[in-house]
Batch of 2 targets.
Target 1
Amino acid sequence: MGKMRSRGVSCALLTSGLLLAAAGAQAGASTPAMLSNACAGCHGTHGESAGPSMPSLAGQSKAAIVTAMKEFKGIPKKDAEGKPVLDKDGKPVLETRTSTVMGRLAKGYTDAEIEAMGDFFAGQKHHSPAQAVDKAKVAKGAELQEKHCIRCHVEDGKEGKDNSPIMAGQWLKYLQVQMDLYTGGQRKMSEKMAEKVKPLSKEELDAVLHFYASVK
Amino acid sequence: MTLDRRSFLKFLGAGVGAAGAPMISRAADFMPKKGRRVVVVGGGYGGTIAAKYIRMMDASIEVVLIERNKQFISCPFSNYYIGGLISDLAPLTIGYDKLTANHGIKLVHAEVTGIDPAAKVVATANGNIAYDRLIVSPGVEFRTSEIEGYDDKTDQAIPHAWKAGEQTILLRKQLEAMKDGGTVIVSMPLVPYRCPPGPYERVSLIAHYLKQHKPKSKVFLLDANSDVVAKKPLFMKAWKEQYAGIMEYVPSKKVTKVDAATKTLFVEGLEDHKGDVVNFIPPQRAGAIAVKAGLVEAGGNWCPVNATTFESTLHKDIHVIGDSCLAGAMPKSGYSANSQAKVCATNVVALMNGKETVDLSGINVCYSAINDHESISVAGVYKVAEGKIIAVPNSGGISPVDFSQTRLEHLYAESWLKNILTEMSS
Ligand SMILES: Cc1cc2nc3c(=O)[nH]c(=O)nc-3n(C[C@H](O)[C@H](O)[C@H](O)COP(=O)(O)OP(=O)(O)OC[C@H]3O[C@@H](n4cnc5c(N)ncnc54)[C@H](O)[C@@H]3O)c2cc1C
């Protein structure tokens, strides 16, 4: 590299650098990617999880992600008349979804930020992970879900009605952990879901999960 | 404007010479720079992610990643090995093949020996490499010169095991070889150091091992700090309920002198503590190359950076992430390094394309195992306020103290490791 020329070039570069540094002083508000990339440490690059107990978020429906995040944060409980229920200190009582770190993390985001993250992950392409499923259970589960789940987990779980999550190609281990939380009473089912799940045995529920995990 | 580089930098107040950065010899450029180039020093928790995300965001920028080792061994989960929860380091070991192939990152396996911030050149054993912007993520260096009696053989007798690999294996071997009824001493430095809960997790898992295999033995934790500095109520509960009689926590014990031959630690040069196995974790500072390049603040041990771009406040066009940087409220963890790398990558790409930078939004999640089936965690969300990285108010915190989530957290911790190492290696 010629010395004279390189000086000229770096001077020009530096000048533009100075202007940029000034622009950088007023950094812009967070972007969907900035918010969501931070989640990838646990949920995988672009929300594609490589860990069996951690759900993939890539390609999940926005409504399901936003609902989950708001439930982790806590949703103000309402009484029969639709008025917020208050505790003895006059603070609204929150209904929160059981979680480990997610409750603590979700509280760090505004509703607008949660919407932005929902958009980001919904816009990523989902790839079903390679995982072992039991063929007999898959076949049995395929039938059971047609009868019990299909109204909300539409099209073999490839779509979700309203805020029902997409189930297709999710990690089996994650689905099983969540089902255990549901049946163990630690995670609250919607009335609709409770009604459908009630008649199913533990084995039958597991078969349904094997089915969803198997869908590509 | 015909200001030359030197006077221009002075004009900016950067004062290259004043910061004492060594000028490196003008060896031949080993990889002549054609287009726009970012060089990343250190292929660990921070560096791999910075390199990958820059390429994902703008494939027109050439990225050169320089790392001394052919494989990276993760510190996270190395305590599992020390406590006997896993039997080899394979689950903690990643290579660079897929990462570099998938993203077109140019990998140079070499030791970085110098950085010239004025000439914008990095020196390696293979030759010089020029950059437009440099990202430095070299982890930590031990401040062993502050410890009387510590030399370059000390860690063979009393391992630190605070960089994963041979040291981790050595400490495990010593524990296995120790007779039942022996004494283990773990000594940890004052904050800040790499991974605040790490030493507490380590003693918990050593106690777990002793409880099962050498129940007449005892492990002492000599903490230089006056109190437990991370996840305190959770660790205290685990120690009381699970390791009473086998593990003892001793605060305010700052070790200033060691005698490797007799495996003795001296607290403030006075009291001495002799163990059958001694794990001495020395005080730390920014990685050696960051120190050498003049990126560390005067009178301090770490690198001051802009809270949004992670650009050094001492040298222009050099960004410092991970353990080496001063990142406000974000702790020195692998998760923080991962999160900072993405923020830095976003803004390096923005700056190189003349776009507006984006304020930091960051996360830290850190799990600690307390035995072979229970883990506890701390989690936080971070943002920038008035130029500083702060924890978002009313968010984050530690696991419930009733231990109602410990089994689930143990399960999630395994998937965390799998995901974060997959992010780094593909
Ligand atoms: C026992 C233990 C347990 C831990 N557990 C957790 C945990 O559970 N969760 C968590 O989030 N964090 C944990 N940490 C912390 C985590 O390991 C660090 O915070 C993280 O590694 C920091 O990333 P980094 O990029 O700054 O440095 P590193 O990951 O150490 O990467 C630095 C890289 O740079 C290379 N390098 C340095 N200098 C040069 C040079 N001059 N030339 C070439 N290459 C160079 C090194 O070889 C290395 O590969 C733990 C740490 C320890 C010690």
Target 2
Amino acid sequence: MSYLHIAYYTFLKNIRDWKFILLLLAAPLLTIAITGSATLNSDRITNSQKAAVAYYDADSGQLAKQFDSFLTSKETQAAFEIKAAPSYEAGMKQVKDGKAEAFIYVRPGFSESFLQGEKTKIEVYGAKSLSASQLLVEGFINNVNASSAVRGIGGDVELNPTSPAIDQIAISATGKAPNGFDKWTYLNMLLILFYGAMLGTLSVINNRQKKTLLRFDVSPINRFASAGGQLLGNSLSLFAFTLLIILVTRYAFGSNWQGSPAVILLTFLLFSGIATAIGMIIGYLVKRTGLSILLIVCLNILLGNAAVATSIQYGNVFFEWIDLISPHYYGYLALTDSIFNGPASRIQSSLFSLAIGAIALASLTLFLGRRKPA
Amino acid sequence: MLVEVSNLVKRYKDVLAVDNVNLSIAEGEIFGLLGPNGAGKTTTINAITGLSKADSGEIKIFGKNFKDSELAIKRELGIVPQDLAIFEDLTAEENLCYFGKLYGLSRSLLKERVSEALEFTGLLDKRKQYPKKFSGGMKRRLNIACAIVHRPKLIIMDEPTVGIDPQSRNHILQSIRQLNEMGSTIIYTSHYMEEVEELCSQIVIMDHGRVIAKGTKEELKAMVTVDERIVMELSSLNFTLVDNIKQLQGVKDSYVNGSELTVISKKRSKSLGRIIDCVAETGSEILSLNVEKPTLEGVFLTLTGRTLRD
Ligand SMILES: Nc1ncnc2c1ncn2[C@@H]1O[C@H](COP(=O)(O)OP(=O)(O)O)[C@@H](O)[C@H]1O
Ligand SMILES: [Mg+2]
């Protein structure tokens, strides 16, 4: 099979290009290192910087007790100034008066309904203007989950403004709650991986400029084999880099990759295929390296930032439209939904969208890269 | 005939790159396509190998045409492109495996043929090295090796020796002869007339997209009447000698240039013996003697009024 053969040597050439590997590896590791250490540092906040958090537990069940003991544990106390509020109203007042940055409220019957498998929530209220505290509270919830005191609580963070000054952060019982950094890290990784499109572009343009394309044109292979082999080889190279990044971040930085391995791998595989195909298509159409790379950067900024905007709830019709065609957005949804127990239907639809995109772009790549009949 | 090209025409916008070219190449030949840069050699080659589409004309290779038997033709074809077409970030051996495998050789056969091709081009000891470290000549040899891994019946070489040292050139010319002896038919394009003269059994001279002459080198040289130039260095010279030589049968002109005596004589007039006798009579000694025979360069000059390298 000449496809596999071409893919193999394309892969071989890519992994020998250590400068490019370094670039692809270094960039995400650097960001993850920075954001990772930022989250780590949040545990070591000094007293003067400690966020004041009020809480009121109206439930008396077993789960709520565990939660209480977690809140009053040494680790939690080291990062937050946890103050028990005498009532729901008093807690809310502390937030409104600015005495606490956030108020955590556990409803009556919380433990029972959780044990019965119902949708439960721990409610977190915070002043919207204090976005740093919001991050801390989200991170705090994540810590709660990580400690497994209340496993299974949390999920998508939704902002439900109850008054202009106060946001309610509802955490549904569908999963773990990621903090802002966590989610942003996955999106950031996709943003950087997208530059792997350049592998495809360079492979196509060099093949033409260095005249090696001619050897494929004169050899007795299928007319789509050259493009198909390169697409496969470059996608797998990018995918291999991704696996490397996952391993390094997992073991060196303790990043959270505890979603479904199948979903995570499929997401990255499809994303690699899409990025490579886009890179090759640009290479076939533009034929010039500089301009191609510029286009890839622009596309990445457009598609990636639409996903970023949506992920940080920066509602905007333009970005929402872009999201519809943004592989970053679907990749981000599939990854974070898998890792943080998001809705299965959304994982499926995101993967489906990625697959459709990959198939369409691969077809276009094969068409543009086909050997024209003599 | 192994290759039959009839009435080939190819135009690039306002350039008529190939103008009604006819070629027929028999099995077992080393067929030379000689012409200056821009003569249309590469364009002709590209049409034969299916790399570019001709505007009109017919091409038959192994009695088949490209439209119906593309893959069958390609399997038997080896192409050495004018521009180096090798991967610099793969070793010599990997390059050969990569391109050889495109011809569907089995793993064991491929291994054998790759070693053979490396050996053949003198690159066996360099097989694990990357071509970016190769000299120009070694790269050219690898460029050739890539085209012969699958032992093609017809090998087309487009200026395989441009810009290399004489040693590599000799090695390449030698291997081409050897390939031919092993049964491959070879189409060889060049703008170096010495190479074509040395190597090729049949020669076509192209200029401005047209075939201006074809035949064996003897036939080509016979086509034009070019005078022979005899240059002698003598121990002593005098004007009577020059005048006497001018009177000899077949001699057109004679003049002195420093210590050298130049005699222009009609082609095949067998005047050399008479000239030497004439010199001997004066008691002068011949220190050196050189007869400049008509060359393909001269043929080209006569046909076009220009030299090949203009
Ligand atoms: N792709 C092309 N586009 C336009 N003109 C071309 C192209 N290729 C060749 N030519 C022109 O066709 C003529 C023949 O070129 P070529 O076949 O390369 O000559 P040779 O190989 O004998 O040096 C030249 O005038 C050249 O400029
Ligand atoms: Mg040429």
